[in-house]
Amino acid sequence: MLKEYLKVMKALSDGNRTKIVKMLALKEMCVCEMQAALKMAQPSVSKHLKILEEAGLVESRKDGMWVNYSLPKKTGNFICQTYA
Description:
The protein is built from 5 helices and 3 strands; from the N terminus they run ααβααββα. The chain has 84 residues and is α+β, with helices and mostly antiparallel strands. It has a 3-stranded antiparallel beta sheet. Strand 2 and strand 3 form a beta hairpin. The longest helix is centred in the middle third of the chain and has 13 residues, at 42-54.
């Protein structure tokens, strides 16, 4: 459990990844939308998304040529459970 917690904290320690999570709290987005909003190169955004996905903070959904990202639908809140 501590290992998962540390993975989440490390993922959120980067400002750009925190911004991505905040944007995804508003709506599902593709990489190109996040790229434009963050003014970053596509490979950089994709790298951040991979880290967030590995930490369980975002999920992806293939839609034709596009991959859309959103916050997980699961109701469990790992961070709050850790402090309970």
